[in-house]
Amino acid sequence: MVDNFAQLYYLDSYQSEFTAEVTAVKEEKNKIWLSLSQTCFYPQGGGQPGDQGILQLIEPNNQTVKVFDTIWSDDIIWHQVDQLLAKGTSVVGQIDFAKRYDLMQQHSGEHIFSGIVNREYGYTNVGFNINSTEMTFDFDGDLNWAQIFEVETEANQAIYENIPIEIRYITQSEQDMWTYRSKLQLEQNIRLVIIPGYDICACAGTHLARTGEIGQIKIIKRESYKGGVRLTALCGTRALRYFQNLFQVIQNVGEVMSANPDNLLEKIINQQSEISDLKFQINKKNKAWLDLFVQKLQPNTERIILTNPEFDKYEWKYVCRYLSEYVSDFVGILTSKTQHNQLLFLYSNKQDLRTIIPELKEKFNFQGGGNASLIQGSLETELSIIKNFLNRIT
Ligand SMILES: [Zn+2]
Questions:
Q1: Final residue of a domain: which of 227, 245, 263?
Q2: CA 144, CA 48: separation in Å to the nearest integer?
Q3: C-beta neighbour count of 319 within 10 angstroms
Q4: Are residues 73 and 205 in the same domain?
């Protein structure tokens, strides 16, 4: 049983170093776990991941043990480590404080946002998770982007106000005196995280001392989820990195488009419309070219084999379909990848093309497939040989 005094992160969430003794050891499924007489390592829980860091042996050789994860199991805090240590070993523990601080920025930011949503819309936060890149929270009611922007603006106002975040323990009998958000039915002493004016929530996680340290909160995604909404959010340095990347992308796209962020969208829309016009013109010209081609066909033409045509592979199907109306057998396109390697595209609405696949495989190591009316793939042969083969096939 871990007593409150052994959970150093509750005495000071900024403490990153401590001394302790190994009190228990276990090995399970190729993982080694240690418990310590006291610890700054926060065990995974309430949506917040477990801390990582190192344990340094005091004697005899300052050996370093890595801590990959921390969990709470059977009322014991277990540290997953890379080396077995004997019970009673003295260690100096050091958490990866940069990671912990980042998690505290996310977690405190989530409380403010959820507190405002609860106050303004009456929705409850029914799911919360922080991973190494982003945090998600789920509400039991929907929010559109306009509503999200409003809450986000107010949450950032709470950050600018740099309000002290208070931690207070209340007994079961004091519960009625407080109104707070809680996911669990709590029976013993309750730990309240209080952000005056914005939120009071029962929570076991580690938090910042003041809201200003959150830096900023930004929602970057909304999805419908179980009749409510799931939001993805970034706080602190994560939000800064996100905007730096976004800025870089917009700068790069702006350079390509010769536009600044203010007229970038307009330029892209204009370009899209130019591309549509060009596609229309190309299709018109293709059709005219195909009509001329058809006029030159001998009566009763069986099949057409086009080699290395000018038009690209996106137009092959269209061309083959068009021409197949004028032939009694099939239309094919052959393009050379190299002198000995050809791409084949064959179309017919008259015969089942699958019947020629075995011979193509046997003679030319055909790699590909298709259905009755269309086959495509590569062939290991020269262009003239496969062309002759296709012209002579019966
Ligand atoms: Zn919390």
A1: 245
A2: 26
A3: 22
A4: no
In this structure, what CATH number is given to the domain that contains residue 136? 3.30.980.10
| CB neighbour list of residue 245: distance below 8 Å, 6 or more residues apart | none
Q: Are residues 63 and 131 in the same domain?
A: no
- Do 141 and 79 lie in a common domain? no
Residue 271 lies in a domain: no
- Report yes or no on 288 lying in a domain: no
Per-residue pLDDT of the chain (394 residues; tens, 9 = 90+): 455 568 999 999 999 999 999 999 999 999 999 999 999 999 998 889 999 999 999 877 779 999 999 999 988 999 999 999 999 999 999 999 999 999 999 999 999 999 999 999 999 999 999 999 999 999 999 999 999 999 999 999 999 999 999 999 998 888 888 888 885 655 678 899 999 999 999 999 999 999 999 999 999 999 999 999 999 999 999 999 999 999 999 999 999 999 998 999 999 999 999 999 998 998 888 888 888 888 887 777 888 998 988 777 778 888 888 888 888 899 999 999 999 999 999 999 888 999 999 999 999 999 999 999 999 999 999 999 999 999 888 7
Q: What tokens were used for 227?
A: 């009749």
Asked if 128 and 233 sit in the same domain, the reply is yes
Q: Which two tokens stand for residue 98?
A: 């940069």
Is 144 within a domain?
yes
List of E strands, 308-350: 331-338, 341-347
Single residue among 59, 76, 95 that ends a domain in this structure: 95
Give distance in angstroms: CA of 47 to centre of ligand 1. 8
d(CA 204, ligand 1 centre) in Å: 6
240 C-alpha vs ligand 1 centroid, how far in Å?
22
In the reported structure, the alpha carbon of residue 381 is separated from the centroid of ligand 1 by a whole-number distance in angstroms of: 67
Q: What is the pTM of this model?
A: 0.77
Distance 98 CA to ligand 1 centre (A): 19
Residue 111 alpha carbon to ligand 1 centre in Å:
6
Q: Among candidates 332, 277, 285, which has minimal Cα distance to 309?
A: 332
Radius of gyration of the chain (CA): 34
H/E run at residue 43: none
What CATH number is given to the structural domain containing 301? Answer: 3.10.310.40
Do 141 and 214 fall within a single domain? yes
> How remote is the CA of residue 207 from the centroid of ligand 1, in Å?
8
Residue with tokens 């089942």: 352
Domain region containing 178: 101-245
